[in-house]
Structure formats: structure tokens, C-alpha cells
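User: Fold this, then the next.

Assistant: Folding the first:
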Amino acid sequence: MDISDREETPYNSIMYQLNDSPKKSTETTTVIMNRYFDSQYFPYSCMKLFGESLGYKRSLPYILGETYFVPDRGTSKKPASWYALHHVANSNFNSADKKLTLFTKQHPILTQDTTHVGFEKQLNVASHLYFTQTKLVEGLFNHFDVSRNRIYRENLVHQRLERVSYQLPSFTAYDFFQFMTFYNAQKSLSTILGEDTPYLDEARSSFRLPKMDK
């Protein structure tokens, strides 16, 4: 929870956890959450690009697999309060005082000032981002046979992998997608400016992935 605007305390944030006592910090929620997002090897800046590609630009939640964090407002100008939507099993909106209560199973875990429309919009965005991610993953894994049946064990590629262990370069999924973005950009520049343009080598050097050891 962001408390950076409260002058009566030197702290800037309070962290509530389901199975632990609250913790106060002088760090802002922006610093804390970005550190967590970076530790997942998928920074919030990349999530923003993903959301923008689907048409969402403000108050974007962080949705990565089964982890859903939602801000109570936009984060570009000042810190926001984030809540873990992946813990929420139910919700109740009191129209009289315009307060939303979120529940995990039967126990309330958070009450906040919001509108019912605002919460539904956030929930819809989070659901859309999650749905898109699952379809991307399903589409990719549909090309693999995880059962590795007898037919596929006779495949030369699988036979080779049973004998040879390849050393992969160290990069994250975010690094790879960023590389592909830059690669497509330089391909477009090559088409427009020509392959012999000296500026292309300088551009390529900034996003070249390490080579895989053979």
C-alpha cells in the first residue's frame, strides 16, 4: 500500500501478506514492485508494451502466468497501491460508501475506495492479458509432444539430444523477445536503407544475443 503522501510518517509503503505480519518500508511501492517484477525476468516496462499491443495503456496490471498484481491507479507520475488479484476468490461492492471488499475464500483481505465500474474494468483487463498469455503458451506447446512416445523417440533430433548436451547462452524470455523486436526493426531498416549502410552494424551490436556453444 502506498502511503508516500502521508506527512505524519517517514515510511512510504506498507506490505500486507496473507501469512505474515505487515511490513513498513521507506522505499516506495514503485521501487519495491519493480524489483519484484525484475526478479521474474519480465520487467513492468515489457508488460506495458504487451498491454499496449492489446489496447491498454493506463493502470495496467502485471499479469505473468498465475501471478496477477493490480495497481489502484496509473504509475507513471507517482507510486500506486498494488494488490495481489491471484489471492482473490470473491468480491463485494458496497454502493452506499463506494467501498470494495476483496475476499480469499471466506475471509476479507482488502477494502478499498473504488467504483464498481473501475474494478470491473481492471478485472477485465487482467483477464484479457491472462487469456492472451495462455493462448500463446498453448499455441507454442501444441507443437511439442511432451509424452515422447515411441514414434518421436525414433526421430533423429530426439536421438541426438539423448546423446548430446548443448550449452545454451544465458538469456531470459524477455531478452529473447526484445531481441526479436530489435531484429525485426533492423530488417526493416535494411530494406529501407540498404544492407551496406554502416549504421546497421552499430545498431546490431547493441542487441546481439550470445552465440550458442556447439
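Now the next one, as you asked:
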Amino acid sequence: MNTPSRRRILSTALALGLVGCGRQQSEEQVVGTVPPTGSSVADGKQALERLLAGNARFVAAQEQDLDEGIARRIAVSKGQHPFATILGCVDSRVPIELVFDQGLGDLVVVRSAGGALDQSVIGSLEFGVAELHTPLLLVLGHQRCGALDATIKALDKPTAHPGKLGYLVDTLAPAVRQTSGKPGDRLTNAVHANVTHVLAELRRSPVITPLEQSGKLQLAGAYYELDTGKVTVES
């Protein structure tokens, strides 16, 4: 059996080392050509405008060619500069990045059923605005929300709920009760009321409130239509 010589082994190792160095250098060069995400957003107003422009592209099926390749992955692995923090529902029909036509490193996304708030959700939103310094915090409700629909049915016909579903109903119930007896579609009213309720609760945060009062953070609510894909700002 032929045994490779020591010289051949050393030569092969040296060649592989040079290839590795070249690959590392080329990756560093690529990273240098990729601008940090969110760099073009100066404040909450511009951040909201950027989201709505992306949503307009989504509605028209003219999404931008997002850079989600190797270069972008390397760039965001070095640090992140998202331009907005968004609270949305877990509904599979409302993928936040797709709805706003944004890519890797652009958004801080927190999702819970119906946009329900608890300590973990609020803490995650506080992290987005205070630690990652996003100038916009958007609460996004959506058409035909299953979690709020289930809450309406649970309040109309009280029953025991397994696991933590009862906690979810209790959390979403205040918004549903606010719409009792009002004209219009009950579920749609509940979704809008919940966005308003969540914003009011977030403004009680000792982290979020000072940022908004200082002008460093803008809070906004919005509504997503499943039928059209359009996002409409409410407040």
C-alpha cells in the first residue's frame, strides 16, 4: 500500500490553509460591501414609512429582491441594526417580514396569539426598543383573528379551558368586553379595540414610556387585511 510522504502531507496542509485564508479574506471583503440594516432610518416616522412602502410592494406582488444570501448572513452575524419592533399575532397567514417585504436583520418581531401581552412579551418589546434602539414600536392586529374569535365565543359560553388557554382568554377579554353592544362586526371591532388596549398597556411600561416622551420612540397601531394584504395605520 502506498503511504503519502511527509512532504506531500505538509504541502496539502499548506494548500488547504491558504485556501482557508483566501476564503476568510473574501468573506471579510464581502461583508464590507453590505451596509448595516436599518441605517437609512432616522426616526419612527421614517421607519413607519419604510414599513408601509414595503407593504405596498407586498400588496402589488412586486416585492424587492431581498439580499438573504451568504453576504447578508455574514453581515448580520456581526451585529444587528433593526429599524422597527413589531408585535403581531401567531396566525400563520400573517408572516410579519413578508407582509412588510423586509429581510434579515431588519425587524424585531414578537408574536403571541391575538397580540396578547404578558411579562415575556412586554420584556421582549422593551428589549427591542431599549437595547436594539428601534425608533418604532408597531402593534399589528389582523382581520378574522382566531384568538379573539375564540375569546368572544368563550365569553359568550363560559367553559373550562385546558392548559394555558384560559389565561389567553382572560388576557384578551378586556378588549372584547369593550366592544359589547357596539354596531358593526363584533370580531373586527374586537381586533381594533385590542390594538388600542395593547398600546395603552405598553404606555404603562417604565421602559417604553420615557422613550416615547423623549421623542426617541414612536408607538403606532395598525390593521392587516387578510383578503387584500394591506396594512392600514390606525393610531
